[in-house]
Amino acid sequence: MLEVAVIDDPAAAEVSLDPVRGKLLAALAEPGSATTLAAQVGLARQKVNYHLRALERHGLIELVEERRKGNVTERVMRATAASYVISPSAMADVAPDPDRAPDQLSARWLLALAARLVRELGELIAGATAARQRLATYAIDAEIRFASAADRAAFAEELGASVKNLVGKYHDENAAGGRKHRLVVALHPSLKKEK
After folding, report:
1. Are 48 and 34 in contact, with CB atoms under 8 Å apart?
2. Residue of 14, 51, 115, 153 with fewest CB within 10 Å of its CB?
3. How many Cα atoms are found within 13 Å in the side-chain-facing hemisphere of 104?
4. Could you read off the pLDDT of 70-80 as tens digits, one per residue?
5. pTM for the whole thing?
6. Residue 105 predicted with pLDDT over 90
7. Is the alpha carbon torsion for 94, 95, 100, 102 positive or negative?
8. Pairwise CA distance, residues 40 & 133, whole Å
9. What's the whole-number mean pLDDT along residues 107-129?
10. Of the candidates 20, 22, 42, 24, which has an alpha carbon nearest to the alpha carbon of residue 33?
């Protein structure tokens, strides 16, 4: 089972957004059958089977094993991933485009960048998986507590200058056999945690 999978097919996205199917996907982090799931989610086994078939058709769950119980075959299923992200490519006609309004201080532009990141990573992961290769990536995740807005602005300016210097040092437009990489650096307020 994958840790995270990207859903880029509109039909699969629609199927996954059904609340009952979402509960079934969560329950199927551990293998289960329609009978065991029916008790967990409080639905009739036939109704659970209906939802499982829809999830299976779109590759969101997979068959783990089949067990004979009397004259019935019980299908044991498992989610293909522990969690899912829906790519903006599932809604391609209205997907955010950071090139439309590049405003570095806009939260909506940052959201468009994040959407592009999800879309591009989804495509890269699919390609790497098909080629049976690892995908070279790198990420930093940190939380910073600034004493003031002025400190935050100074940090952003210094970070921007440092990144610009690194890009200038390592970027080689004419490198034979080189490969472009996308760098996204984001700074936004952390969500307040409930106490």
Report:
1. yes
2. 153
3. 8
4. 888 899 999 99
5. 0.82
6. no
7. positive
8. 38
9. 92
10. 24
